[in-house]
Amino acid sequence: MGYRDLLRMIGLFVISGVAFGSSAKAAPQILAVLATDTAIPFTCEDGLCSAELSTYCLQRDRPKPHAGSVYLPAEAKDFILGVKTASGKIRNLPSSPYVTFREARGFLTITAVIEARQLKRLGSLDATIRIGEYASLIPVPEEGDPNPLTKKEIAYVTGSLRKHGQNIVDKDPQAFAARLLTRVLNQMHDQGPAQPGLGEKLWRESVGNILTGGVGFDQARKTYDDCFAGPEMGAYGVGVRHCLEFRHDEMMRTLNINYWDTQPNS
Fold this sequence. Notes:
2 domains
């Protein structure tokens, strides 16, 4: 399935606003979301605006999210939608009434989606999303769930376990590298060959003035250069994107395993 097709599919779920499936499954894992160093811009195409966010699983024993699983912020204050009006003013709003969060690549990436017409109703020319520290996403409950999340479980996971994850995952330089790769992926186009100088231009536009140097930054830059220098270069719209997605997910999976292995009572 292509990226545009995925966005169209997500759009149908946004419009319906309900969970789906012929039979209810046990609630999937609560996810931690990496904080953003600066606001992540939404990219709009075909009436839908999207932004990818780096995530990891807080509950090893829960099922992984199934394709298109819908999530909601555990705390509204941790997910802020910034909308820019015609006057240039930025309005900061809770994302919950406007943004839908859906599984993108297992428990390693979530896609935040808002309809372009919704932005117009908000008087916006463009939008961003900002993620705070200790941010978590909770799966939308499904009717008939044989093993639903309880209030006690949610409180423990989004509290104690999320704080543990902050120390083990979020502060790791590799998490910083993954966040930078996500910023690049959010700026990439799907189609077309890589033109000379595109790699440097995309990096500059995506990373901007984020602090340079350090282990995490250097790891992200090396990964980025490797993907652009390899055979994927000839198929920029697919090859380089898939390379970066794979390397991002590899980083987050390694961090997630470390979190599981050091989890209290593991």
